[in-house]
Amino acid sequence: MNTNSKITLLGTVSDIKVLNNNRTAAGIILDVDNNQILIDPGIGTIIRADNAKIELKNINIILSSTSDTIYTNDINAVIEHTNKDIHLICSKELIKHDESILTSKHAKNLKIVTVEEEKQTSIRGIDIQAINNKVGISYKINTSKFVLGYITKAKYNKNFVEWFKDANILIINTTLNKPEKNSSYLDIEEITELIREVAPELVILNGFSEKTIKADPLDISRKIKQELQKNKQVITKTQILPAKELMTINPEAYNIRLKQKNLKGFFQ
């Protein structure tokens, strides 16, 4: 397994309406600390992993944010491609095999941790914190190189914001251009405020809906940045990127604290 850290965004949508040859709901692969983590093995994960030349047999941790089909469709196929020594963190709904995609046969040999409200667990040297606010599970992944926050469905509140304060990178599924009553996703205003409060080095907007694709994810990214820059007294250095299929990121480039530590050692 490659010892260099890498994030690979296999897919870019969370809306079945916009699935096509150019956009899938494939998951996210995180290579770090001699582990390979798969987040949300949605529709297209198997194909996109092959496109990216990623060997799924190396996956040893799967994180699931919701039991929705769009996010879990390829989970059984992924399990069949692995070496079977897999930890799965998910909601209780995903292991109700008569109701979800995950079959009892495929779940049989998994090391499963379910999240009802909050759960913190350490797997192979990686500290994974999960918060389930009844609409979905958000994750904070603490590695030796960086801290990654992953948000799909979530409810915005002060405690939720505080939870991500030490994250260097945020990946946020972006489906709403404006507030919508009873929506499970954060709207653009909430995402903007979250970025303002957390001030991560990098934000990747992902999981687009039909609405956000029509609005143009690049344009949304620019508008969020412009809104953040309105406050002249607070300089926002966060880089905001719209996800692209098969996009790869070097996450260590976005950990200022690690860079400072390395430079300090260099100049001693």
Structure, described:
- The chain is of the alpha/beta class.
- It has a single domain, classed as 4-Layer Sandwich (Metallo-beta-lactamase, Chain A), CATH 3.60.15.
- Helix content is 26%, strand content 25%.
- It has nine helices and 14 strands.
- It has helices at residues 45-51, 69-72, 75-81, 104-107, 158-163, 188-198, 210-215, 217-228, 256-267, and strands spanning 6-9, 28-32, 35-39, 61-63, 87-90, 111-114, 118-123, 126-132, 137-142, 147-151, 169-173, 202-206, 239-242, 247-249.
- The strands form two sheets. The chain has a seven-stranded mixed sheet, with no helix packed on it.
- A hairpin with a 4-residue loop joins strand 9 and strand 10 (147-151).
- Helix 6 (188-198) crosses helix 8.
- The longest helix is centred in the last third of the chain and has 12 residues, at 217-228.
- The protein starts with 5 loop residues before the first strand and ends with a helix.
- The model is unreliable at 259-268 (pLDDT under 50).
